[in-house]
Each structure stands twice: as C-alpha cells, then as structure tokens.
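Tutorial handout. Part one gives the primary structure; part two gives the three-dimensional structure as tokens.
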Amino acid sequence: MKKKVLIFIISYKAEYRVKDVFKKIPFKKLRNFDCSVLISDDASNDVTVSYIKQLTGKKIFKNFNKRNLGYGGNIKKCLNFAKMKKMDFAIMLHGDGQYHPKYIVKMIKILNDNTNINAVTGSRMIYKNKALSGKMPIYKFIGNIFLTFLTNLITGKKFTDCHSGFWAYRVSSFNKIKLKQITNGFNFDQQIRLNFITRNFLIKEIPIQTIYGSERSSMHLVYAIRYVLELLKFLIKI
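Part two.
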C-alpha cells in the first residue's frame, strides 16, 4: 500500500502565485506515494479564487472559506481534512510562493524512512548568508536569530530557524494534540513546534532556499510586533 500524502496550499490574496506554486509541485518524483492536493483559500477578496478554479487534475480538492479564519485557522482546517482522509503525511505550502515545492520530495522521504520523526521543517537560516541573498527583510533576519536563540535557550533545543512556515507533518502526531487549543493567528507554527517539543516529538530541519519579494509577505511590521509578543507570552508559560 502506498503511503497517503496530502499537500495543502494555504492562500490569502495570493493571486496568480498560487497557480505557480501548484505547477511547481514535483508529482513525477512522488509517484511512489498516493498524493492528493488541497488548496484552501481564506476568504480572499481579490482574484485569487479565480486562479484556484483554473487548476484541474486528479485528487485535487478546493476549499473556499466563507469568512477569514486566520493563518492558523486555515491550517487547522487543512490538518483536520488530512485526519479525516486518513493521510499518513501532510505538507504545507504557502500560496504566495515563499517556499519552493521542490523540497517536498526530501521531506516526505525523511518522514517515510524515519518513523521516529514527527515533522520536518525547512530552515532558511542554516546558511544565513543565503537568507539575506534571498531578500529576507533585515528586521526579520535579526528577529529570527534572536527569537530562535531565545526559544532554544528555554527549550534546550538547537534549531536554526524557529519561524519557518514550511512544514511536513506525520498526521498521526495530531492524535495527541488538540488543534482547537492552538491559535488561529500567525503564531500557529510556533505553538505547534512548542507542543511537539513538550511531547518529545522529533522535528527535523532541512536547509531551504529563501524566497522573498516586496509583495509576497503576508505578515508586515504591525503583525510582526504582535507575533513577537504572542510568542514571548507562550514561551513564558513553558
């Protein structure tokens, strides 16, 4: 039996980029797995939905939230879908193209070959010079280094990038995590990471290319400040 894989793309005002992300998924290299794709749009009020509707193929599911659920809320909807469909692995892509789908192959292989690993994340900071050459904003670069150091200090881990949004999960991990208790906001990935850590779940990092553009980041300075405050609040509770 082939392992069942869900590749889910979360989108919000991604426009044409969501279509580009879908086309870059390396399906041919994943033929040893039973792959499905879920594209979940979080109530975009632009032309994003029209681009999603253009996408066709086998085992493509589309979800259009009637109201905005938030970054974390949209991810939770996708993960619950993965649980309902009894997927083995679930990989998250961002519709704005910030993370290249080419790394999916390596992520799935790691999960498939190592049953003790619960998640794989893409790290932009293993090679920090490449993060800057990939146009990561300087405030995010410095903030990432400081907040990752702080997270490692409190948790005793040695992650290089605690703020990546590129994740591949072993879906069975969520049998022990109550998604309802995780934030619907931008701090979803960090709360999941810390929930995994407190349960002694293993998270593997792989180096990934950093891709940034002035129009691509959905989290701007105001949200970044809120993000930092929420993270600090959560770290204090550990």
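Part three, for discussion. The chain has a mean pLDDT of 93. Residues 138-155 form the longest helix (18 residues).
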